[in-house]
Succinate dehydrogenase cytochrome b556 subunit
Amino acid sequence: MHRNPSRPLSPHLTIWRWGPHMLVSILHRVTGSGLATIGAAALVWWLAAAASGPEAYGTFVSWATSWIGIVIGVGLSWAFFQHTLSGIRHLVMDIGAGFELSTNKFWANMTLVGSALLTALFWFVVLGVK
Ligand code: HEM
């Protein structure tokens, strides 16, 4: 491909100093894709099992309550909260707010803290921990 050598090159990824905003940006894509694939598959399985009768639903429940089902469930719930919080951050930035470096890093970190807290709260409620 022809390249005009007088034009500046975009800095390579490794040039940028790593920060929470980069992690949250990557996580937004990863969690969005995870919800749209694994999350959608789990939802379809749940609905199909519920529509197919007690035996199929029992199979689903035994998988969902096994350790692997719980690990996937915790992962999906965390992905949902992380994606939602970073999605709200995206929408705020889309109106032109929150670009100042320290503000930007602060809210990136807050999405990570918030998603961990919301996931823990969600599972405390689901498991009925008192
Ligand atoms: C289970 C529900 C959801 C699924 C499956 C989902 C999935 C996705 C996917 C696949 C993307 C594209 C990611 C990429 O390629 O960069 C995306 C982007 C986005 N999502 Fe979600 N999402 C969900 C819920 C939400 C919620 C609740 C919000 C909250 C406000 C949100 C806000 C956004 C925004 C703002 C973008 C665009 C980000 C950008 O400008 O690059 N999403 N979502």
Observations:
- Residues 29, 32-33, 35-36, 39, 80, 83-84, 87-88, 90-91 surround protoporphyrin IX containing FE (CB under 6 Å).
